[in-house]
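hey so i finally got around to running the thing on that chain from the lab meeting. sorry it took forever, my laptop kept dying and i had to restart like 3 times. anyway pasting the input first so we r on the same page abt which one it is
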Amino acid sequence: MINILIADDHLLFREGLKQILAKHKDLRVADEAGSGNEAIQKILRGGFDLVILDISMPGRSGLDILAEIRKEKPDLPVLIVSMHPEDQYAVRVLKAGASGYLTKESAASELISAIHKVSSGGRYISPSVAEKLADALGREHPESPHHALSNREFQVMRMLAAGKTLKEIAEDLILSEKTITTYRARILEKMELRNNVELSHYAIKHHLLD
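ok and heres what got predicted. didnt touch it at all, straight out
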């Protein structure tokens, strides 16, 4: 029996996922979490063989949670299931220690295959992600400026590029506006851009928005 924790802030998605997993006798949803902090608390208590984790959650992002899981429970498989296309986050999360990456548009059969593979110690990646990962790992230096951003900076950059205000981003991430302002300045400096308009053009050009 594979005991699974589902960490996603959307109740409807969690319910749908539970219905899919309930059709398989060797899979059991042992618990669920609607926020990053709740997920970490439950993971630290133990009892799970696998975590299904979303990237975009309020407060601590899935990337932050992944980093803490790798620190506290290095052998616990984490399967990322995200609304974001593979080319936006897959390589980044796999390099950060995720066991696999799926989009929420993936077929149920692919999800089940991924769960079985990562729970047995393997890694699940699509052929297109495998190619991107090999290319990324083979480069000594980042090819594009956004590859130099930290995970949190990348998250803030996408939100800025999508037109969100500093206040909106601060509320979504449960951070202060001053902190987001600091992130913005650092992002623009690293990417050698001058303002949010240039940031949006860059994000569109590199397909970094949904």
